[in-house]
């Protein structure tokens, strides 16, 4: 009774301080967990709330550093783990997960960093090959391991990770290859060197590759540093994420297509190998603003989306398409991008302008138990999240594990889409806005900036400019706000803060910040 009395007194005090009962939202702020709830399936902490008569823990020696997830059906998934195994997990959709079972399917793999299931077989990219793995005798244990494709270099450098595959709409399997950072003499003896630029790397390191249904491995695009995530949108186009470092200003999302060069120049060590679609780069524009570097180097292509450092993550990982038809909330058709260091997930809206992808990123969900490395959408629309922070530290309470993110069916007040317009941006909201606050220019702050393209590690935001919002038009249904903006700049990030906008029922935006990469201004 004392506790209830204290809580009641505090509630009355909060209402008084807020000024009216209608302002309680400003005191009791909505949290991400109100809309997307985390369920821990397996983390190093004991799941005491999941104890049941038939509950069994994971095998005592199972370090579930999830590096790939394949959804099998409405009660099972398969996970690859970094030490080289594939496990089948049953009962993973239960809430709480009382009866999860574990069965080891495959062993002796070399750091698999991806997993798909197709036509009765698993496919994973090991450090040196794309492998098909099957159970041929029906005992749920793999007995056939076949090389599907190989041919990229492995010099022995620790940073030569290989990721994938993902499957496009034509049946091709795509993979990406890390570069080695600072090759030593013993590594260079196994590397290739471009005779003009002098860069040395393992064969095809820093490249995106595709393997056709016939097994032909084809180099597609170059310039990757640490391309840890791969994803395919509804149109069947393939994307990858890259992580900040030398030549890479900040984390980024790129549309993979033939002949594109993105940013990391050491990938050009393979430029003159047979089959290379990237040609003719003889000079590197080092130390210029990125828009200027694009003019000097026509092969260089901008990312579809920049993720401003720390504001939208520090180390981008996996890409998951929300293909749930609304089962996972209001973001059907958009991408979710994992984040290693901050143990979080960002959301991405993409659009095509003049035939090229660009768009906005938004914070989405934080608070995972460890670094988010892999994501996959379950049959019920929920998101399975694979965790491992080995090699680099991350936020969180665990070093590895598997969690599941479930929409609570409660609608968050968010900027659903940010679309480029000839004279500004159109914002699409998940709920109708309060017309007074949404039409007030003081509710918004907008600035633009770019980055330096250089050999140094990362880049500060440079050439910043605060932008004036000249007028705002709200749609009749209250779901859209059209912002007329003075001073748009092509090839700059446009950072929006809409903290002053309220919904019709008085809510503040759950995430008021958006970051739009304006590669092209619509005509």
From TrEMBL:
Residues 103-249 form the DUF7133 domain. It comes from Gimesia algae. Residues 1-21 form the signal peptide. This is DUF7133 domain-containing protein. Pfam families: DUF7133. Keywords: Signal. InterPro entries: 6-blade_b-propeller_TolB-like, DUF7133. Coiled coil: none annotated.
């Amino acid at each position: 009774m004392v506790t209830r009395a204290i809580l009641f007194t505090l509630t009355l005090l909060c209402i008084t301080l807020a000024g009216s009962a209608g302002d309680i939202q400003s005191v009791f702020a909505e949290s991400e967990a109100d809309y997307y709830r985390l369920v821990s399936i397996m983390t190093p902490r004991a799941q005491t709330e999941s104890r049941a008569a038939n509950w069994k823990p994971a095998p005592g020696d199972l370090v579930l550093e999830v590096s790939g997830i394949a959804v099998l059906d409405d009660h099972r998934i398969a996970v690859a783990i970094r030490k080289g195994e594939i496990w089948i997990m049953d009962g993973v959709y239960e809430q709480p997960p009382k009866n999860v079972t574990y069965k080891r399917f495959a062993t002796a793999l070399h750091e698999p960093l991806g997993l798909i299931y197709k036509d009765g077989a698993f496919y994973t990219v090991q450090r040196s090959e794309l492998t098909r793995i099957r159970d041929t005798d029906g005992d749920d244990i793999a007995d056939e391991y076949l090389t599907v494709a190989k041919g990229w270099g492995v010099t022995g450098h620790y940073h030569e990770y290989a990721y994938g595959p993902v499957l496009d709409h034509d049946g091709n399997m795509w993979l990406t290859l890390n570069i080695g950072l600072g090759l030593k003499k013993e590594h260079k003896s196994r590397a290739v060197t471009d005779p003009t630029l002098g860069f040395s790397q393992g064969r095809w390191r820093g490249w995106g590759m595709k393997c056709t249904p016939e097994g032909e491995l084809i180099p597609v695009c170059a310039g990757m540093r640490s391309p840890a995530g791969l994803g395919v949108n509804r149109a069947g186009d393939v994307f990858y994420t890259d992580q900040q470092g030398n030549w890479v200003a900040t984390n980024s999302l790129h549309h993979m297509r033939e002949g594109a060069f993105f940013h990391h120049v050491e990938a050009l060590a393979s430029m003159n190998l047979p089959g290379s679609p990237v040609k003719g780069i003889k000079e590197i524009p080092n130390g210029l603003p990125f828009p200027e570097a694009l003019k000097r180097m026509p092969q260089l292509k901008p990312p579809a989306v920049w993720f401003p450092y720390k504001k939208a993550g520090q180390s981008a990982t996996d890409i998951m398409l929300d293909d749930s038809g609304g089962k996972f909330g209001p973001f059907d058709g958009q991408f979710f991008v994992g984040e290693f260091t901050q143990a979080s997930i960002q959301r991405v809206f993409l659009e095509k302008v003049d035939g090229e992808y660009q768009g906005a990123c938004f914070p989405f969900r934080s608070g995972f138990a460890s670094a988010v490395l892999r994501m996959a959408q379950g049959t019920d629309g929920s998101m399975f999240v694979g965790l491992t922070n080995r090699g680099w530290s991350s936020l969180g309470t665990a070093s590895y594990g598997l969690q599941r993110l479930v929409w609570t069916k409660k609608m968050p007040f968010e900027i659903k889409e940010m679309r480029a317009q000839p004279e500004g941006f159109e914002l699409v909201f998940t709920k109708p806005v309060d017309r007074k606050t949404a039409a007030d220019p003081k509710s918004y702050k907008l600035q633009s900036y770019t980055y330096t393209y250089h050999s140094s590690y990362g880049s500060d935001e440079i050439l910043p400019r605060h932008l004036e919002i000249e007028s705002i038009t709200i749609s009749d249904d209250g779901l859209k706000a059209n912002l007329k903006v003075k001073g748009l700049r092509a090839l700059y990030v446009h950072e929006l803060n809409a903290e002053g906008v309220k919904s019709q029922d008085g809510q503040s935006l759950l995430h008021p910040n958006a970051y739009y990469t304006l590669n092209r201004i619509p005509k």
